[in-house]
Amino acid sequence: MGRPTAEDSGKSHAHTRRAVLAGGALLGAGALLGATPAGAAGKVVAERRLDDRLVELTVDSPALGGRSTVALLTPRGWDGRRPGDRWPVLYLLAGGDGDHTTWTTLFKVQELAELRDVLVVMPGMPLFGFWTDWWNHGKGGAPRVRTYFLREVVPLMERDYGAGPNRAAAGESQGGFGALGLAARVAGLFGAAAAFGAPVHPVRHPEMWLSGAKFVGVDGYAIFGDPWKQWKTWLDWDPYHHAAGLRHTPVYLASGDGKPGPLDGDEPDPHIPGTEKWVALADHGVTSVTEAVCGEETRMLGDRLASLGAPVDVHIYPGGHSGTYGYRELRHALPMLMAALRR
Question: What percent of the chain has pLDDT over 90?
Answer without folding.
Answer: 73
